[in-house]
Design goal:
single chain; binds phosphoric acid mono(formamide)ester; 342 residues; Rossmann fold; globular; four-stranded parallel beta sheet; alpha/beta
């Protein structure tokens, strides 16, 4: 195996990977997009199976991973973990140590999605993926957990490069909270902060008081910015956030008080609170404050809450390109981590 091989390497967050390895993924993703069905790629995972555990529903992630496996000559297989008998604090069953080793005998890789409402506390979903990674000999790919969403972060960067060019240094990215009834996880927004700060983007994080993100992740973002010389600010003033932004990423997210002490995810309470901020929506008036910014969103987008229809459907909206990019970046990650032929 070559010294710089990524074979069998898990991806739980892009922050765990070297920037040069992320660049390898992005380069391959652009090549795969250009030459989608080339013989160079269509047998890389021939007869290999990508296993997928979805604790939560998905449209893009499931469809794009299944399509990615097909286009690489393999197959993707879906399991709802409720049909497993895993050991938990409250029930007897199989350990992750055992399940991870058995899955490693079947598949070429294992993808897992587990979001905020399927865990008793923030971070438990990410910890579960890391437990699988500890015992498996195949790569564990994060298909969105309660902290990170690396495939989305890579697709975001690919979309921004398509529209702003290869060098994103010095471009201002606004990541702004949007009101709504979805009470979403922090994974997409935190992954975007991490990867885009490593790409040298100036990041402005804007939200109402009471919607702080994970302080450890914010520290990592500050460190990333120090290394790249990028600016980082947190503001609670939308005017300030939108001013001169080159990219606007509007998204609802839960507050840090979303769990009760006994491990219940308090969705109804979160929604009630979030709907009290109707002025927190990305609309055309606010977009006028920007540097003719692009609009991005990981989708599914909550039109009328996170963003107005006018902005979501405007020529500046690149969210469909970004959604397409999920396929290309996942193909690249799968090829690099699951095929000995790259
Ligand atoms: N962006 C994203 O992960 O979409 P899905 O929830 O539809 O998979």
């Amino acid at each position: 195996m070559a010294k710089d091989s990524l074979f069998a390497k898990s991806m739980i967050t892009t922050q765990d990977w070297l920037v040069e390895d992320l660049e390898r993924v992005l380069k391959l993703a652009f090549e795969m997009k250009e030459d989608r069905y080339s013989d160079k790629y269509t047998s890389l995972l021939k007869f290999r199976t990508f296993l997928m555990f979805f604790y939560n529903p998905s449209v893009r992630t499931r469809q794009s991973f299944e399509a990615a496996a097909t286009e690489l000559g393999g197959h993707a297989q879906f399991l709802e973990p409720k049909s497993m008998r895993l050991k938990t604090k409250k029930s007897a069953g199989e350990t992750i140590e055992d399940a991870a080793q058995v899955m490693s005998r079947y598949g070429a890789g294992l993808g897992i999605r587990i979001l905020e409402d399927k865990v008793p506390e923030y971070g438990a979903g990410d910890a579960l993926l890391r437990e699988y990674a500890k015992y498996s000999t195949i790569p564990i790919l994060n298909m969105a957990d309660d902290k990170f969403h690396p495939m989305q972060g890579l697709a975001d960067v690919m979309g921004l490069r398509m529209h702003l060019g290869q060098n994103l240094k010095g471009k201002k990215l606004l990541q702004v909270w949007g009101h709504g009834a979805l009470s979403r996880s922090w994974c997409s927004i935190q992954e975007s902060l991490l990867i885009n700060s490593r790409m040298g983007m100036d990041v402005s994080l804007c939200y109402p008081e009471g919607y702080d993100l994970d302080p450890e992740v914010i520290e990592m973002v500050k460190e990333n910015c120090k290394k790249t010389g990028a600016k980082f600010e947190i503001t609670h003033e939308q005017q300030e956030g939108y001013k001169d932004a080159d990219v606007v990423y509007s998204r609802n997210w839960m507050s840090p008080n979303a769990y009760s002490p006994d491990g219940e995810y308090l969705k109804a309470k979160e929604v009630e609170k979030a709907l009290k901020y109707p002025e927190w929506i990305c609309d055309s008036e606010k977009m006028k404050l920007t540097n003719e910014a692009l609009f991005i969103h990981p989708m599914p987008v909550d039109r009328g809450h996170e963003v107005s229809d006018e902005v979501a459907s405007s020529k500046k909206s690149i969210m469909i390109d970004v959604a397409e990019n999920r396929l290309h970046v996942q193909k690249a990650v799968m090829a690099l981590t699951m095929s000995e032929n790259l």
